[in-house]
Write a structure and sequence with these properties.
Length: 83
């Protein structure tokens, strides 16, 4: 599953609570957990979970291509080998 889809699936319930007609306290708590993106401001950048690099990300592993190469050559990813 791709990183973006995984994070979006985790945010759906919070987004629902934030924009519902529930009492103020749960709405405010969900808005705080979602961050500025829920209010319409800011941009949530998806990238490498180690280096925070936003370009050249291998989606299945959520690692940048550089970090993916380092980890896979070091044997950190089981089942991945150099051809």
């Amino acid at each position: 599953m791709h990183c973006n889809k995984l994070l979006a699936a985790e945010e759906k319930p919070l987004h629902y609570v934030a924009h519902s007609r529930l009492p103020a306290e749960p709405r405010i708590n969900s808005l705080l957990r979602l961050g500025l993106r829920a209010l319409g401001g800011g941009k949530k950048a998806f990238g490498c979970v180690d280096t925070k690099r936003s370009r050249g990300v291998v989606g299945l592993f959520c690692l940048s291509r550089i970090r993916f190469r380092e980890v896979s050559l070091g044997g950190g990813l089981p089942g991945v080998k150099k051809i």
